# Entry
Amino acid sequence: MTQPDLSGYAVCDCCGMLAPAREMLPWFQRVQCRKLATLGPAPEPEQAWVSGLFCCYYVTHEHQVCSPCFDYLLDGGVFAGSERHRAKIAILVLAIVLLLLIFMLPDVLPVLKSALWLDKAEGA
# Structure
């Protein structure tokens, strides 16, 4: 069995799907960070400010996203939201199924017990 050639593909940081690397677009995300002021100055002291015990500053992250995710983000969508990431959706569905099984177990257990285990009088 041969493996497909994935050298021209990259994983989208927003949805986690494979997309052609040449079609990936940069998405910049500015995040506010903070650290304890006693640990030293921020990486860029001219853009930092002190708020109580913390030194606050901004960091810009660059992500490579596919074209549909780029359009979604331009429309105001959430980066790497749970509705766009299949792994997060799968974990959520698994958790819901597990909770339903836990809540249904007291009702289903007597039925399963009578169906799968025979009484001593029934075995003869």
